[in-house]
Each structure stands twice: as structure tokens, then as C-alpha cells.
Design a protein that fits this description.
By secondary structure, this protein is of the alpha/beta class. The chain has seven helices and four strands. The protein has a four-stranded parallel sheet, covered by helices on one side. The mean pLDDT is 93.
Length: 147
């Protein structure tokens, strides 16, 4: 971690120390997170917290912003920001939802549905917003026009 902090190309480059809370013991996770903090990382990333008592102990033992992933149902109902949690990653939920939609669409098409019958298609307005179409169109006008 010290090497990563020393090698950062500019001060806005963020270095995050990561540990799996369930890989050994809570005490070991806190030792590792504290070592990352002393090394100068900007945030601490903890995977697999199960209990509020674990989050509370980590928040008490450290001072940096926290990032969580794969938390338990017990922690889903907690005001995580009260424990300096700034990001709570939702795992693979977005890609899993996308895969389910692709599966259902392909199944409907296989079963004879017309493409015009598929209702779960993104609107053209949302597609343009998500893909930055206005920026692309502006660049096309600026750089691809023939004078």
C-alpha cells in the first residue's frame, strides 16, 4: 500500500485498501485496515461484513471513509453513513438484472414474439442519455464535417 500511495500519478488518484472481513478474524481485519490507514490510503474497502458489531468496531478503530460490498441482510437496514460508509456496492446486481432481461427477451423472440412486441426495451431518449449521444453528435459535427 505504501508503494501504491508513493506511485500515485497525482493527488486526485485514490488508493483504496481492501480486505475480506470474513477471511480470518475481525481483529485481523482491523489490523490490516489500520495498517492500510497508516500507509496513507484514502479509503478502506471491506467485503463480507455480517454484523453491525463488526462495522461498529471497524468504524471505531479507523478514521477513513469506508466502502462496503457483499454485506448481510442485517446491515441492509442500518444507516451506513453513520459509520462513515460512503459507498455500499451492490455486487453483481446490475449485470444480473441485465442478464435476466436478455434471457427473457431472447426467450420471447424464440417463442415467436415480434421485436415490436418486446416491452422491456430502453427508450430512445434514455439510450441517448446513457450513451452520451449529444456529446458524440457534437464531436461528429465538429470533427467529421467536410469543408
Amino acid at each position: 500500500m505504501r508503494a501504491a500511495v508513493a506511485a500515485r500519478p497525482d493527488p486526485s488518484f485514490v488508493v483504496i485498501g481492501r480486505t475480506n472481513a470474513g477471511s480470518t478474524s475481525l481483529d485481523d481485519a482491523i489490523r490490516r485496515l489500520s495498517a492500510y490507514e497508516r500507509a496513507g490510503v484514502d479509503a478502506l474497502f471491506i467485503v463480507g461484513l455480517k454484523r453491525l458489531s463488526e462495522l461498529s468496531a471497524i468504524a471505531e478503530a479507523t478514521t477513513l471513509p469506508l466502502i462496503l460490498a457483499n454485506i448481510s441482510a442485517e446491515l441492509e437496514s442500518v444507516n451506513l453513513s453513520a459509520y462513515r460508509v460512503r459507498i455500499n456496492l451492490q455486487g453483481h446486481l446490475p449485470i444480473m438484472a441485465a442478464l435476466q432481461s436478455v434471457y427473457e427477451t431472447m426467450k420471447e423472440l424464440r417463442d415467436g414474439a415480434s421485436p415490436l412486441q418486446i416491452k422491456t426495451v430502453v427508450s430512445s431518449e434514455l439510450l441517448k442519455a446513457l450513451t452520451g449521444a449529444a456529446t458524440y453528435d457534437e464531436a461528429t459535427r465538429k470533427y467529421m464535417s467536410i469543408n
